[in-house]
Amino acid sequence: MDGFERRTLAKKEQVLGAAFDLMNVENGKGSQALSIADVAAHSHVSRATIFNYFGSRQGLISAVFDRFLAQIAEGAERIVAQDLPFAQVMMTLTRYELDRLSHVSEQFYRDLMRWYAEDNGPGMHDLRDRYTKRSFGILLGLFAKGRREGSVDPQYSDEFLLLYLRMMTQGALDPSIRDAIVPYSEQFVEMLIRGVAPPPRSVRGSGHSK
């Protein structure tokens, strides 16, 4: 990477960081109120350069959301790659994701969910497909680790486990309870882990004897 490319990347990060901060103003209107003029003023990058980088206001908003999701995924991959027991990885991963989400405004989170589910702009299908595959890859690696350690019941398929985690976490990520659950993250993860753990041998044995 030459000097020009490094400067371009640095400027893009300035713009994305400024836009992210503006979209997270407490009690603000999120992406709805974002203007290129404000981003230019906060990032010290000209409006013309911002349009050149991102094409449009909506292009910038999409880039902010894409960057946020990519950062979460990168952090999750680092956690899963650590040589830690399954339960500890689950605890660390859940705390990390709840912490990241607790540091964005409620409006930002709502805008993010709406953008991810409803935006059909250029490249959105590929972006959703890429992020879904990346997320599933992280979780499937975690499930495999849990099975090797005997922490995940082998009778549960990957498909079922993905549905189980989705069901359990969607409520926790609801903006109305997102912040309230942070102090209970340890108990929340304990429930997740117990739900996928193999039953005690005595219980499983008594079930087979009937």
Overview of the molecule:
InterPro entries: Homeodomain-like_sf (IPR009057), HTH-type_TetR-like_transc_reg (IPR050109), HTH_TetR (IPR001647). This is TetR family regulatory protein. The chain is mainly alpha-helical and 210 residues long. It has one domain: Tetracycline Repressor, domain 2 (Orthogonal Bundle), CATH 1.10.357.10. It is built from eleven helices and no strands. α1 packs across α4. The chain is elongated and about 65 Å long. The model has no long low-confidence stretch (mean pLDDT 87).
Structure summary:
The chain is mostly helical.
Q: Into which percentage range does the β-strand content fall?
A: under 5%
Helix content: over 70%
SSE string, helix = H, strand = E? HHHHHHHHHHH
What is the straight-line distance between the termini?
A: 68 Å
What would the average pLDDT be, to the nearest integer?
87
Overall geometry? elongated
Number of helices: 11
The CATH homology group name: Tetracycline Repressor, domain 2
Question: Which architecture does the CATH hierarchy give at level 2?
Answer: Orthogonal Bundle
**Computed CA radius of gyration, to the nearest angstrom:** 21 Å
> What oligomerization state is this entry in?
single chain
Structural class by helix and strand composition? mainly alpha
Low-confidence stretches: none
Compile the SSE list and pairings.
Elements: H1 3-23, H2 36-43, H3 47-54, H4 57-81, H5 86-102, H6 106-118, H7 124-149, H8 158-172, H9 175-178, H10 185-196, H11 201-209
Helix pairs in contact: 1-2, 1-4, 3-4, 4-5, 4-7, 5-7, 5-10
